[in-house]
Amino acid sequence: MRETNFLIENNARHLWHPMAHPAEMLANPPRIINAAEGVDVIDIHGKKVLDAVGGLWNVNLGYSCEPVKKAIRDQLEELPYYSTFRGTTNSPLIELSYELAEWFKEDGLVRAFFTSGGSDSVETALRLARQYHKINGQPERTKFVALKKGYHGTHFGGASVNGNSNFRRNYEPLLPGVFHLAAPYTYRNPFNTTDAAEIAQAIARQFEDEIAFQGADTIAALIMEPVLGAGGVIVPHETFMPLMREICDKHGILLIADEVITAFGRTGAWTGSRGWGVKPDMMSTAKAITNGYFPFGAVMISEKVTAAFESNKNSFGSIGHGYTYSGHPVGAAAALATLKETKRQNTAANAAARGAELMAGLEGLKAKHELVGDVRGKGLMAALELVSDRQKKSAAAKDVVAKVYDTAYEAGVMVRTSGSNVIISPPLVISAGDVSRIISALDEGLSAAG
Ligand code: PLP
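Above: the input record for the complex with pyridoxal-5'-phosphate. Below: its predicted structure, written as tokens.
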């Protein structure tokens, strides 16, 4: 391997990173991760840290999941690629469709459309939503509704429904006909309340108002995450998603659950929607479907949407959408092995149990450190929101957040920061001891920065 300086210089010279300024790379070089083991990653200097980011919310089974690695190796030998465009398919993919229909049966989802990642899945769901209404003789239903602070990836459709200007501003104009409701964010909201149930009601009223203003017959779908992830782990009140479902049903609007983060146990339920008792019309998934070892995703489709497409014999029913890598056999084999291991290890139950310990630990940090303004989480997705003044809720400065991150890393734990949030999303297979490691590293970080 080349020496460290060569790598850092050439990383800065030749490589643009997602969600980063290309000019920052020399002054603030990224950590070079060269190896991983269990729930730890090892950097180029040989330093081993617990990966409390879980890759990027995706390595739910950790880095040493041999059955998934073996499935990938074996499938590469057997059939490294073939297309699923009309006329051909492959057997691991057929088996996977069967397993996914079983997996998502309780969510009422019966068909899968395969993609190469979360942004593809979101794009697919948005397009199929429009097509669904055309099939049903309502071609004017083209608009989308989403939540502020929601994150839905980076394709033009996904960016259009995104609820954070950082991911929109530089790429505008985006899709017309997209409307954003307030985020169900208890700590900061425009409703002058900290009562999560009241916030849910207030957003429901906003949704009804917007529908009345736009005309229900112009709206295709509401897209939302059951727990908002990248927006800062915003956990709505338990009534929120059921309320949104009710309003969608009343007005013939499809509900797309974007479960790219939450579909395979992260919240402590097997899907985020199921955790709230909601059945969506479509669900976008990706990330943990292959334990992060292969780029892959699936949009799961309900009986209702399936029936509309499959009973329609005119040109509106044919799917004019798909990717070269829709249904990649290596991804399918990886996903099959991942599902089997996920079930065997019952990771949702571990996410719920370890998540409760994590939340208790984070609440303890809030009691101890003025810097912590808010603690949020569900299962193994959590956030600390850092503030410079608790009364005013002013966001902590960038260098303060960076100090927490760097100190925690030195103490042996990698977290992720996003604005003034510290995000924690470890593999779902962590132990109680790992939770303690995360809390004590953050404790050190907050002490150093406070
Ligand atoms: N939707 C949600 C809810 C996500 O969290 C993400 C990524 O974090 C995406 C979509 C986009 O997925 P990808 O980065 O795989 O394209």
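Notes for the reader.
The pocket of pyridoxal-5'-phosphate is lined by residues 117-119, 122, 151-153, 225, 229-230, 258, 260-261, 286 (CB under 6 Å).
The domain at 68-344 is CATH 3.40.640.10 (Aspartate Aminotransferase; domain 2).
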